[in-house]
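Study the following:
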Amino acid sequence: MSAVHSIPASGYRIRRRPAPQSAASLFPNCPDAPNAMVRELAPLADPSNSMPLLPAGCPPLGAEGTGPGGIRRATDFPQQRIRTAAAPLVGIARLASISPAAESRRTSEERPEYFLLPVRSIMNRCDSKRVPFEWTVNPYRGCEFACRYCYARYTHEYMELDGSEFEKKIFVKQDASALIGRELAEKYCKAGERPNLDHPEHIAIGTATDPYQPAEREYGVTRACLEQLVKREGLSISITTKSNQVVRDLELLQQIARRSTLYVNLTVTTLRARLARWLEPRAPRPDLRIAALRRLREAGIPAGVLASPLLPGITDGEGELERLAEAAKDAGSLWFSSGILFLQATSAKQFMPAIRAKFPRLAKQYEEWFVRNGKAPEEYRDALTRRLTEIRRRLGYSERPFVDIRRPVASAQMSLAWSAKETREEWRTQLAAVC
């Protein structure tokens, strides 16, 4: 098995963050801690000289910092450009560099490489105002489903890896059960446990990587987390996946649903199997996901469909979104939502060559909308909103449960300018973009 940090793709520029010797230690050498593999202190990077990192699982800000469609470029933040001078690896990049290979029963030459990542935390705080959840849990870093459009490829760059290796090098987070148990006790707040908190903080599982990708069959990190969640009550949890493997944990999910609030999102981009195989090469077929949805609903688990991302000119054909919504409704889906594609720079590097090769007639439009301008035109976005509204009305879909998850208010009195409708629409759009 090759080293974790292999030679990057041609033209890929490794960005390293400086590590001043005077900074505090981020990962102390503690034999009882999950990162016991660390043999020496890893100093923090000086925040004045490096770009701040977003928590894993939170969608990156756009070029203007206002929406998911923008592309984050170093030139947008000249005061925070990252120096490229050689410097020691720090933080998650350092941990990735010393992660040992994980044993695997798989023998296929096409399987990814697996590594054991000695993390200190499994729950990531998400302070973005654009999404209605406070915590994200991603049991793995990297995802074998290899979705061509996946926005989360940029997270591999934090480990000094090329985004193209997102589906080739999968990092298994160690000691997940112990970590999430401790963090639920120390960090998580239920309704009333903090000033102005009138709802339990929401935990979104699977925002940056699929929690039921093939690695889960071997390493069971997702199940280990669920086994801790089932011991608590009064939590608010959602799981987002493209995999029918979620039904493996059906009994566990039923137990969680009895004690806490639980939602399961099945992401289904299209019903066309051949197109789905091209878009999401290693994900289960659409019909298998719909079948998993049916089993979840028969078991009494609140579940619905995310038709995201919507790809203009590819999955938005006349009647296509409507047929998908009807199939979901027939399987018992409680909600149906969709969000338009957005491309982070790392994702565009992988996605755009594929579009030029497969759909050359769309290449110019995609360059204009998603690479140059960062998002689809307002007219197109408004048309999708109207289309979804009509689909929900005709098929009797209720609002997605996430619109009822409210973030803590900033003060005792809310601004008179606050609009519940606008906030719900913003959350709906932003969350639908998290694949």
